[in-house]
Amino acid sequence: MGEMTIKLGNKTFELYTARAETDDACWVYIPEIKCAFIGDLIIGTFPNIGNPWKPTRFALDWAKTLELVRAKKPEYVFCNGAGVMYKGKNVLKALNANIEVIRALHDQVVDYINQGVHISEMIHKVKIPDHLKNNRYIKMLYSKPEFFTYNVYRWYHGYFDDNPAHLLPRPEKEVMKEVSNLIGDPKKVINRVKELNKNNKPQLALQVLDVLIQADPENLEARKLRVILLEKLGATDYCLMSRNAWYYFINQDKKFLKKRNVKNKNLVIYLTVSKNMYHCSSSSRNSVPKCLCLVCLAKSLGTDSLAGL
Fold first, then answer.
1. CA 170/CA 189 separation, integer angstroms
2. 64-105 per-position pLDDT tens digit
């Protein structure tokens, strides 16, 4: 990690390395025009510290780097691949919001680790401070606090959750088969799942239903019911990562059912974006978009521009 200064014409380019989203981040400050180019240190939404499909990110170093940017007192900040720009008073507001939310959530995770709180409880306990919940600079359109919590937990604690049953576990399907056999009648699980869903507990219902699906992947009633649960979870989730995951697995189940000639008028295959955020032009304003790109999500929230988010 280090820094470098180069001159081009009448401009000075101060280059700084950092550990943040990756371990080789670089940001640039040009003092003559008080402008900072900081890449993905800020992305215009809640910081991407925690991605279920990516390596661990450097939360505390991320905040410290943003503090170094703030110390330069820039008047302009270009970030998120220069797709987002802040100027004037908005620079400090954006920097402050990102720094504060990172430090607040990081410290909560560390405190809960020291208290011995299980990670499955921790993701529900770690909260954005009340005064930042509706902050325009950290809206949860890409990542979310739960993913942040997993990230910091793994950084300090590793993957083991202090449950001895999980240290060297048997395959999940094998365990669920035993549980399913003990329950006996699959209808008991189906009925309980429907009851939980009716009581607006789709996530709990999804996990209970998983006993059947893991034990018997060919259980068509369970697979149809999972589609209902996933659609309920996805309908109000505007975080790109989790929303896209819900709809990916909806599609997988619908394809599974279609191959088995299960007739269902609602077997619509949704367009998902697993590795990018490119706009597909498939959704209409103020509707739940079938496309999950940020542009369509923005439209469904009542704005045509990500700058307004």
1. 22
2. 999 999 999 999 999 988 789 999 999 999 999 999 999 999
List C-alpha distances in Å: 247 to 226, 241, 254, 282. 11, 10, 10, 15
In a domain, 36, yes or no: yes
- Number of separate domains in the chain: 1
State which residues form the domain around 31: 3-157
> Is 307 a member of any domain?
no
Residue 245 is assigned to a structural domain of this protein: no
CB 281 within 8 A of CB 292: no
DSSP characters for 201-267? -HHHHHHHHHHHHHH-TT-HHHHHHHHHHHHHHHHT---HHHHHHHHHHHHHHHHHHHHTT---TT-
223 within domain boundaries: no
Tell me the pTM: 0.85
The larger pLDDT score, comparing residue 271 to residue 176, is at: 176
E strand or H helix that includes residue 12:
strand 11-18
> Which domain CATH number covers 41?
3.60.15.30
pLDDT per position as a tens digit, 24-63: 999 999 999 999 999 999 999 999 999 999 999 999 999 9
